Amino acid sequence: MHRYKLDKISSKNWLTATEAEQIRRLIAASFNGVDSQQYFNKYFANPAHYQRRVRLYYQGDLLLGYCLLTFHKDANNSIVMGASAAFTPGYRGNNSTFGFSFSAAISTWLRHLRHKVYYLDTMLSPAMYRAMGKKVAFIYPNPNMNKADIARYQALVPNAEPSTWQQLRCLKTVGRASNYTAEDISRLKASTKAEIAFYCQLNPNFAQGTALMVLIPVNLQQLLLTGWKWLKGLVRRQQHKAAPLS
Predict the structure, then answer these.
(1) Which of 68, 70, 72, 227 has the CB geometry, 3.0–4.6 Å to 84, for a possible disulfide?
(2) How many Å apart are CA 33 and CA 130, to the nearest integer?
(3) Rounded distance, CA 95 to CA 110, Å?
């Protein structure tokens, strides 16, 4: 059975009853401590979001995962993009969400040049933080934040809970957790990968329902430097493929 993607927009071709039920089942299987119907209503059917976009990943009739983006306008002339994603265990780790999220961020910024645009995600997964942190030019929190960075970040997440790392207020108790096995949790906490190790330092209780508030500003500098970072990575991969085997 071949794999394919479906893109849905709340204002055009929103979810069918079958797709909605598949998503609810995947939510129930992917998170501990969550009511799948309440979660679906909060993220997929919340009228506070002026738009919702979701990409569905299928193999035949089987839903392998989804990436949902939500959009709402704040009183301070800003647009905040939120996200939710879930994947079956065998489909995790494919970097499936970045391209979809980044292209939506660009189009949102271009259509709202008079607004400040932010991507704000409550990340329960160290692996997701690493996947985003490796690709974008600016992500917060990060280990190199200066006082000005911290002040700007804190102003945009005023209700966040404190971490033991520099008492940075960057956490949120969400009452759900990714459905990791004990082996998964041990492996993540022992990881030497910089982004995962930093996430675990900030949020050691990610498996007990605490999420990291991850903020990514969407502006010209971010888009240009992220694009440049992507191009350099592409060149390195091409050079690696072209290198002769010794």
Answers:
(1) 68
(2) 24
(3) 24
- Which residue's entry shows tokens 């498996």? 207
Residue 66 near residue 54 (C-beta atoms within 8 A): yes
119: closest CA among 26, 53, 186, 209? Answer: 53
> What's the pLDDT tens digit per position in 187-218?
999 999 999 999 999 999 998 889 999 999 99
- In angstroms, the CA 64 to CA 72 distance is 27
pLDDT in tens, 3-55: 899 999 999 899 999 999 999 999 998 888 889 999 999 999 999 999 999 99
Rounded Cα–Cα distance for residues 31 and 22 (Å): 15
Residues 6+ apart with CB under 8 A from 68: 43, 44, 52, 53, 54, 83, 84, 85
For residue 126, whether the previous peptide bond is cis, meaning omega lies within 30 degrees of 0, is no
Beta strands 51-59; 3-9: pairing state:
antiparallel
Cα(157)–Cα(69) distance, rounded to whole angstroms?
A: 19
Closest by CA to 129, choosing from 138, 137, 139, is: 139
